[in-house]
Amino acid sequence: MERKKDERMVGVPDTQVMERDTDFARLADTLERIGSMMEETGDGTTPGKMAQLAEKTRRAELNIAFCGHFSAGKSTMINTLLGVNLLPSNPIPTSANVVKIRGGEKAARVYTRSSGVLTFDPDTEMEKLKQFAVDGDTVEWVEVSYPGTFLDERSSLLDTPGIDSTDAAHKIATESALHLADVVVYMMDYNHVQAEENFNFTKALKDRGKPVYLVVNMIDKHIDFELDFDSYKESVEEAFATWNIRPDGIFYTSLAEPDHPENQYEAFREKLLALIGERERLIGESVVHSAEHLIEEHVKGIAQRSAAAREALENRLEALAVDGVDKSDAAQAEAALREAEAAQSALASRAEEARKQMEKELSALLDNARLTYYSTNEAAERYLESRKPGFKVGLFFAARKTEEERAKRLDALLADVREKVAGNLDFHFKDLMSKLPEAYGIRDEDYHAAVHATRIEVTAEFLAALVKDGAGTREYVMNYCSDISNAIKAEYHRAGLAFIEQVTARLRQQAEAEAEALQARLGALRELVEIHAGLAALAESERTAKERLRAILREGA
Fold first, then answer.
1. 55-69 pLDDT per residue, tens
2. Of 521 and 449, which is predicted with more confidence?
3. What distance in Å separates the CA atoms of residue 161 and residue 175, rounded to the nearest whole number?
4. Which parts form a coiled-coil structure per UniProt (predicted)?
5. Which residue in 184, 417, 480, 552 has its CB near the most CB atoms, within 10 A?
């Protein structure tokens, strides 16, 4: 037994590598690049498989994998095809029990996890090989090279453990080898063809894009008087078609009775030789399919590593309660948040906007209210005349009569102004002030009563106080009437602003109450949107990883 440095990759030694095909070399580089990118994400499994696939691609090595049940006779079939008994009648009992046989110099190698590559003489040390390989904890792969068969250094047969093994590690070993298989031969015992496991496994292989050839072995068990063989073959084909499985070929064989009239062993062997002749095409197609499958596995791994974070987000989502929103709908949650934020913004400015609108309406009312007419001007002119220096009435008791006349003329002006204010302003002012709260959904009887109890008194003293010294011209009469109008409107403006402030204060109170209730909804909606963003980010990381790696594969394929 010879101990060599651990190569860690399944394949022939570098001294036996044939001249590399440029396309395969470029594709291998691409696969190595993809594997490195996978490794950077913390994937501890798929990068190794991708590296194996890259090495196989670089060597342009065709692998034909034999899969099936323990009882299907895979090892016997392989020994028969090779013309030499290299495999035991039962597979080597190891958890990494995939045996690779190829052409080349005689050698038997055991690839171990920690002891490097152990090399044996296949003619004299096969029993030692079998004994050593029993320790499934240390063995990864078994490889046998043997000259004189229909295989060369770049074509191999893979004997995998039976898929019906009770040892889960055997099933994992079979699965772990399939990414290196360019063609799969699926062998079945004559009596167990229609087992559901056959259909599931074969369909999975076809879904991966693998060429799959079915071999129904041990047909010597067929009893023709129970069912003619053509009907049996038809039932087999119909069974697989029912599962929507279209194998690339079906062969019926018997190794126990080589002369069996239905034996297609020779046709099967010829098909294997033809497949080896199509090595480059098969490798080119198979490697890309395997790489795509490994990318899918890598993305599933990303999802698994994110499972805890995803579950935490989903638990938060389940615990949330948001009225009127479908929690599972991210778009609806986003729209509800925007609506709530808009409502919050509107609340913050609603009272101020309402105040501005009410002041605008008050100003419009006052601006359009006409308080002085021709009669007012005439009364004002007569009153101002009585205020001129030298104004005098009568000869006897002139002072008393003059004051009486001045008072009479002031009363006439006062009556005219009060009439115009009552008809053209006071009524409309109270009507407007009463309706302001109602426009914003506020009903307040006390406020309404206060508006109608408002009295803006226009007195004789008020009118007299507006007279300026030196008043005597016709132009001044117009100015005086304007001063009267403006002064009265100013009083109404002050009163109106006081009422508007009351309404504004009520609106602020309403807004504060609504904002408090809205704040809780906003918090829930923000958390909901945050959860969906987190879930989307996890999904996006998976999608992005898949698209990026597949794009690299397309470019290098």
1. 999 999 999 999 987
2. 449
3. 10
4. 303-368
5. 184
The count of other CB atoms within 10 Å of the CB of residue 163 is 19
Q: Where are the alpha helices (DSSP H) in 392-473?
A: 398-421, 427-439, 445-452, 460-465
Are the beta carbons of 105 and 144 closer than 8 angstroms?
no
Q: Are 334 and 325 in contact (CB under 8 A)?
A: no
Q: SS3 helix, strand, coil % of the chain, rounded to 5?
A: 60, 10, 30
The whole-chain average pLDDT of the chain stands at 85
DSSP at 334: H
263, 251 contact by CB (below 8 A): no
List, for residues 205-238, the tens digit of each pLDDT value.
898 888 999 999 999 998 877 788 999 999 999 9
**8-state DSSP, 325:** -
The amino acid occupying position 414 is: L
Q: Considering only CA atoms, which of 65, 66, 69, 91 is closest in space to residue 194?
A: 69
Domains of the chain by start residue, with CATH: 60-298 (3.40.50.300), 330-543 (no CATH)
Which residue in this structure is represented by tokens 């307040």? 444
Beta strands in 85-221 (DSSP E): 99-102, 107-112, 117-120, 139-145, 155-159, 183-189, 212-217
3 state SS of 399: helix
